[in-house]
Amino acid sequence: MKRLFFYPILFAIILLYCCQPAWAEFDKSFLTKYSTIYYTQDKDIDDFIWRLGGQKLEFATDRNLASSRIDRLIKRTQMILDMWPKDFKVNIYLHRGVLQPNRVAFHDSKSNSLHICVDYASDGVVAHELAHAIIDQYFPLSTPTKMQEILAQYVDRHLWSDY
Known about the structure:
This protein is α/β, with parallel strands linked by helices. It has helices at residues 2-18, 42-53, 63-81, 123-138, 145-158; strands at residues 28-31, 35-39, 90-95, 105-108, 113-117.
C-alpha cells in the first residue's frame, strides 16, 4: 500500500524538478515603454545596455538612460519599416553563451519574445530581431518567412545610415 503513494509522489517531484518552465531561470526583469527585459544577473543587463549604446553605464544608477536606449532602438526599427503596431510590446530574454548552433539571437512569435545572447548582442542584432517582432504584430496574419528575413536584413543595413 505504501508503494502506491510513493511512486506518484516521486514522479511528481522529478517532474517539478526537471520540467521547470524556461522563464524560471530569469529572476530579474526591467520594464521599458515597449519591452520587458528578463535577465539573471545585473552584469547581463549592464553588458547588454553597453553593447547597444557603446558607452558603459551603471544600470542600477541610470535606469532612464538604459530604458531610452532600448526604446529608441525599437522606435528606430519601426520608423525604418514604417510599421507602427498598436500597443507594441515585446519580451526580451538575455542569455549567456550561444543559444543554439550558429545562433546568437532569435524571435519566438508564439511567445512574442526575443532571445538574445548578451556576449554577441549589438544594436544591429537586436534591431534585426525586433523587426521580426514588429512585423508579426503589425500584420494580422503570419507573413512569409523569407519576406520577414528580407525586411529584417533591410533594417540591419539601414539602422543608422542617415545619422
